[in-house]
Amino acid sequence: MRFSCNAGGLARLWLRGLFAAMFALTAAVALAQTYPSKAIRLLTPYPPGGSTDTLSRIIGPKLSQMLGVPVTVESMAGANGGIALSFLAKSQPDGYTVLITTASPIVVNPHTFPNLPYDALKDFTPISLVATSESALLVNPAVPANSLKELIDLSKTRPIRIGVAGRGGQPELILQKINMDTGAKMVPVPYAGGGPAIIDAVGGHVDGVLNDIAGTVKPMVDQGRLRSVAVLTNTEKSSMLPNAKTLIEQSQPLQFAMRNWLILLGPPGMPADVSEKLRRSITEAVADPEVIKGLRTGSLLPYPSKSVSEVKDFVASEHRIFRDIQRETGVKVQ
């Protein structure tokens, strides 16, 4: 068999490749220089009433003011965040579709869902951490338990049904870890998000809820419609529920305390200048006194990242932590 080499043809192919690369670079630079020039969709992967919705509605108006374009908050709930994350992974990487999510869809679901339609570490552009919140195990006031120990003891006499956001997410994993560490027999009841789980706990349809304090939890506690049996932190005192006891205060430290953090993600392949502009905007926004006031009202604390590389390293570390917890608890969504 004989092969021939056409020098002119190779040169034309090389020039085409060069022009294509130059065009892509020019387009990326142009996008970064003009961004943003139209409305930005800010997706949330859970129903209203939870921390993602609360944070998005606090931060959205400030980002709109800073960037000079509308920022529209859009709930895309389902599959424990999977629907919104799958949509984001397939969106154009132009910075006009971004998402605020909790930890579960990107560092927990990869270990508990066998066939995720996305790769959590490859299919997104981590832009910045935004905020953090404490989490708590709470019960309906009719449940005769005022501490974690009392709830554990009660669960050994009858089933204690605890609402959690999503199947195989962070709340279910932590609840099962509490069961393993203490011998409790609490049963996770999955909901589409924290908001619906909180509503059912208040209504007595489940005994309680394990959720972050952000959103509607603190008002429910303040009104006496929910009772915290433990703030799930190994610190001395809760900053959000000062009258509720932490694990340390109850001499019930766990090997792993639940920390809820919220992160801004974009589609894969976002231009670095665009993601950096969004990161700087988040940092500036959460330092604004009015935003800080709103975050505190929503039981959230600012938690911005200093660089995109920092948030990437953080996500990778949390990914390993929850991999180990999943292996220990065996939680798996079939």
SS summary, helix count: 11
Q: If you consult CATH, what is the topology of the largest domain? A: D-Maltodextrin-Binding Protein, domain 2
How many angstroms separate the termini?
Answer: 54 Å
Provide the low-confidence segments as ranges. 1-5, 19-28
User: What's the structural domain tally?
Assistant: 2
What is the top-level CATH class of the largest domain? Answer: Alpha Beta
Computed over alpha carbons, the radius of gyration is 23 Å
H/E element order: HEHEHEHEHEHEHEHEEHHEH
Sheet having the most strands: 10 strands, mixed
Strand content: 15-25%
Q: Mean of the pLDDT scores?
A: 88
The number of distinct β-strands equals 10
CATH architecture of the largest domain: 3-Layer(aba) Sandwich
- Secondary-structure content class: alpha/beta
In CATH terms, the superfamily of the largest domain is: Bordetella uptake gene, domain 1
**Overall body shape:** globular
**Helix proportion range:** 40-55%
